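Methods: holo model generation. Sequences were used as deposited, without trimming of termini or removal of tags, and paired with ligand SMILES retrieved from the corresponding compound records. Each pair was processed once, and we did not select among multiple samples. The sequence and S-adenosylmethionine SMILES for this entry were:
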Amino acid sequence: MSLQREGWWHRLLRAARPLLARVLGWLPLRWIFEVFYWFSGDPWAYWTSARERARYDDAMRILDGRLAGRRVLEVGCSNGAFTARLVGTGAHVTAVDISLMALRRARSRVPRAAFRRLDVFAEGLPEGLFEVIVATDVLGYTDDLALLRGVRDRMVGALADGGVILLGNTKLRAEDGEGWDAFASGYPKLGATRIRAVFMERMRVVEGSEAASYRIDLLTSSSDILQGTVLDS
Ligand SMILES: C[S@@+](CC[C@H](N)C(=O)[O-])C[C@H]1O[C@@H](n2cnc3c(N)ncnc32)[C@H](O)[C@@H]1O
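and the model returned the structure below.
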């Protein structure tokens, strides 16, 4: 995530970090994101940043050939920048986010996807429906591993036979010695290494990619996946 590298309001937020940490600590997660999207329609510059485009390119390379005509769930879709990439392949995309402001922006930019508000930490997912589930930079907003395991189990339950999960997360300096320092309020609380470890309790890696700032894995819990070969367990 490039929150620390973007425009003037990021610099302002950084200067006000101690105060923000207190205020955001009291706010429910949903309202934190509503505030972010109220300040800026694209708080992480997903539609314009070359760095984010490269991360999306990496994810699309891993998903290549697995999307056209498939039912795809995107969790934490933000303002639709990656949703647009998924829709462009001919996939049938359902995209969810906790923030209504984010969804409003996503809907206006990607009319061909189905959007709905959903808190993935608290709400259920339809069983056995999706061939592909995408969750990038959305599962680190808790440090409750039991909660994360619950989300993981619901995501695995939402997969159709042979389905795959694309899991992508920012590396945290605190976990990996490289990567990102949590911004105001200490989010994200979990980084790529710890989130991946929770998913690997039930899933195997089909394909993966690692950069200095993030890690992406395509995971399955099935021995008979849609396409590709299982590499390790
Ligand atoms: C850092 S952005 C990541 C956006 C996109 N997935 C990406 O990787 O470019 C995190 C998004 O997840 C959403 N989000 C955070 N917690 C969520 C939750 N519990 N359920 C659904 N969406 C959530 C936020 O509103 C925000 O749009």
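Residues 1, 29, 33, 44, 46, 76, 78, 82, 96-99, 102, 118-121, 136-138, 141 surround S-adenosylmethionine (CB under 6 Å).
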